[in-house]
Amino acid sequence: xxxxxxxxxxxxxxxxxxxxxxxxxxxxxxxxxxxxxxxxxxxxxxxxxxxxxxxxxxxxxxxxxxxxxxxxxxxxxxxxxxxxxxxxxxxxxxxxxxxxxxxxxxxxxxxxxxxxxxxxxxxxxxxxxxxxxxxxxxxxxxxxxxxxxxxxxxxxxxxxxxxxxxxxxxxxxxxxxxxxxxxxxxxxxxxxxxxxxxxxxxxxxxxxxxxxxxxxxxxxxxxxxxxxxxxxxxxxxxxxxxxxxxxxxxxxxxxxxxxxxxxxxxxxxxxxxxxxxxxxxxxxxxxxxxxxxxxxxxxxxxxxxxxxxxxxxxxxxxxxxxxxxxxxxxxxxxxxxxxxxxxxxxxxxxxxxxxxxxxxxxxxxxxxxxxxxxxxxxxxxxxxxxxxxxxxxxxxxxxxxxxxxxxxxxxxxxxxxxxxxxxxxxxx
Length: 428
Hints:
This protein is of the alpha/beta class. It has helices at 2-6, 9-17, 36-52, 82-98, 112-128, 145-154, 157-163, 167-173, 194-199, 231-240, 250-264, 273-284, 289-295, 300-310, 333-343, 375-380, 401-421; strands at 27-31, 57-62, 68-71, 102-105, 134-137, 164-165, 179-183, 202-207, 221-224, 314-317, 320-324, 351-359, 362-369, 385-386, 390-396. The protein is globular and about 60 Å long. The model has no long low-confidence stretch (mean pLDDT 89).
């Protein structure tokens, strides 16, 4: 109890003592049960979660209670490790070869990175196990609008039927020996079709978001790497280091490149040498930059809506922008994300938060940061999540955007004031 009340100040003390940041401290701690074997298992898993979220934090696991997170005030450093990519590639290859059928699924309201990485995994499975049937879970009503238009423009109806399967059909067909690969997410509640995860007995996860409390239970394979820019980047590396030659058609390479461009905001945010390496590999497969860029272009109505949302911008703290859509208009979560991304390009803005109604009874929050503020920690306050520089949350059964805005504004102020008290950031 004393350690939890202290909120692991050791993490902050270490930062003050250590002038360079060559290492980080990660802690897993468990309590609440007298079985010491179980306690050790809980503490070990808590440490694994801390590491999978990028390290530099503590995770407390209390028996039959939610995990608690402390620290994590620095962005995940890039980890360029060809050995890890090769091991992960070979491990997934072994699972694919053992499977009777393979299904690949992205998150709900799938974006270019979710579908791009799914297409890359489709090529991976085809390359490492030519006799194993593979299908991508596809529901055009569960795709973000831009992604849906790009997908239909890129592939013919015959190609889509060959590569894809409807969620309901997959649910009927999936068997105990089949493998389900989920990409660009790891939480059950954000799945395109959660029932498929509940039925699948063998699950593999590939994701670049920091691990959340609602991670899918007991996957056979988990490659969650928050230092990567995108899921497409991770899949490209697995294709590159596969033990056999894998071909990626030009149209799929272009889709994957568009996923990287989307998640890095045209190579502005959360990138490293491995991001450029992945892009170069996709170019060698014939990826078309101009076509990938066209997938991201906005319609006139979208442009007007973005301007309307930005016109309501407020500044709860120095360097932080908070804005929102009108309470009587419904907007896509992807639109909130785009506004947050573009707001970050304004001089002097370190973080942006955008709120809007995404359905009749759900209000969404999207956020972006330049790395000085953790979007994930703020969104986790509202049971959301994501990565350090890009995160989101949903407020279910909410009817008033203004009420949600005030809640978010209060949390932002508390978080930023806490950073300033710890002298992690300056400002007024």
